[in-house]
């Protein structure tokens, strides 16, 4: 197996086909096709199902994505190490975080890490589906994922970073009682909900159901980031992270809930596959979460 074949395999995965991979790599399509077929022959498995002009990962191909990304990460780490001066940490730190958690403690950790290791670059990407936090690590998309608990994954280690409080947010002209507002007795004001199947939405639905009083539905939106703009447009109220609601505090009505709707969030990683950069980041996290006593 050649490193070039692994790079071409991942390029096809990430660009959803040979054409996109060839463009991204700056090579001809036959070059990518030949490299893939040679890799499949060497491994003795079919990595893709070729359907018309499309490419769909086979079961073996899906299994290979994580190890392939780990190979590339390890090779990059070796290159960074050789290029660095003695005892200097260099390389890349890859994190994915859900929008609600990519603030506060996460930003503070990145700032401290960059101040300590200025030769390390950081990529903070968006984790759009918190239920896939474990699989993004297992598939090699990142070394670290930040999401609300629980984070499933038998091989993962999880460190709690803090908690996120959710509040009710309404248009500024809405007639709602002074807070806190009982979750089981929300005002009869139209609401913007996210679909069930997302952990926060499920917990919110259950809390409403216990009270037996459900406000009318205005919009069911799969785009979580559009909830606040919909409130600002007067479409309805919603449940929103306090940190996000605070960005529009002068244009909306914010009410706490009764009981408080709070969920902890954490950072997850696989301790068995950490790069030197990842290991240094974990050490920094532990020192900040549990600082040594005098």
What's the helical proportion of residues? 25-40%
Distance between the termini: 52 Å
Q: Which whole number gives the mean pLDDT?
A: 84
User: How would you spell out the order of helices and strands?
Assistant: HHHEEHEHEHEEEEHEHEHEEEH
Strand content: 15-25%
- Which geometry do the CA atoms define? globular
Q: Total strand count, please?
A: 13
| Cα Rg | 23 Å
Overall structural class, as computed from helix and strand content, comes to alpha/beta
| Tally of DSSP helical segments | 10
Low-pLDDT sequence parts: none
Give a short account of the largest sheet.
7 strands, mixed
Account of the protein in words:
- Helix 1 (3-15) crosses helix 3 (29-43), helix 1 packs across helix 4 (59-83) and helix 2 (18-25) crosses helix 3 (29-43).
- The chain starts with a helix and ends in a 5-residue tail after the last helix.
- It has helices at 3-15, 18-25, 29-43, 59-83, 105-116, 133-138, 199-211, 227-232, 242-245, 276-289; strands at 48-51, 54-57, 91-97, 120-126, 144-148, 157-171, 181-182, 191-193, 217-220, 238-241, 252-255, 257-258, 261-269.
- The chain is globular, with a radius of gyration of 23 Å.
- The chain is of the alpha/beta class and 294 residues long.
- The mean pLDDT is 84.
- The protein has ten helices and 13 strands.
- Strands 3, 4, 5, 6, 10, 11 and 13 form a seven-stranded mixed β-sheet that branches. The protein has a two-stranded antiparallel ribbon with strand order 1-2. The protein has a two-stranded parallel sheet with strand order 7-12.
């Amino acid at each position: 197996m050649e490193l070039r074949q692994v790079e071409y395999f991942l390029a096809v995965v990430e660009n959803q086909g040979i054409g996109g991979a060839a463009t991204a790599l700056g090579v001809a399509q036959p070059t990518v096709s030949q490299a893939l077929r040679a890799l499949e022959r060497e491994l003795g498995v079919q990595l893709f199902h070729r359907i018309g002009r499309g490419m769909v990962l086979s079961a073996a191909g899906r299994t290979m994505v994580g190890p392939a990304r780990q190979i590339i990460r390890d090779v990059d780490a070796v290159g960074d190490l050789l290029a660095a001066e003695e005892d200097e940490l260099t390389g890349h730190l890859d994190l994915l975080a859900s929008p609600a958690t990519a603030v506060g403690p996460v930003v503070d950790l990145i700032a401290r890490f960059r101040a300590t290791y200025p030769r390390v670059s950081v990529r903070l990407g968006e984790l759009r589906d918190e239920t896939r936090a474990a699989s993004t690590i297992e598939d090699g998309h990142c070394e670290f994922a930040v999401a609300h608990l629980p984070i499933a994954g038998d091989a993962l280690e999880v460190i709690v970073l803090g908690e996120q409080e959710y509040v009710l947010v309404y248009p500024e002209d809405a007639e709602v009682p002074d807070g806190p507002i009982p979750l089981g007795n929300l005002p009869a004001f139209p609401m913007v909900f996210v679909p069930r199947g997302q952990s926060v939405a499920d917990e919110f639905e259950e809390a409403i159901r216990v009270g037996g009083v459900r406000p009318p539905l205005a919009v069911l939106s799969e785009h979580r980031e559009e909830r606040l703009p919909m409130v600002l447009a007067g479409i309805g109220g919603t449940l929103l992270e306090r940190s996000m609601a605070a960005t529009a505090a002068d244009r909306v009505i914010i009410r706490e809930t009764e009981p408080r709707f709070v969920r902890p969030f954490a950072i997850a990683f696989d301790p068995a596959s950490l790069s030197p950069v990842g290991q240094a980041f974990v050490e920094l996290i532990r020192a900040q979460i549990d600082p040594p006593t005098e």
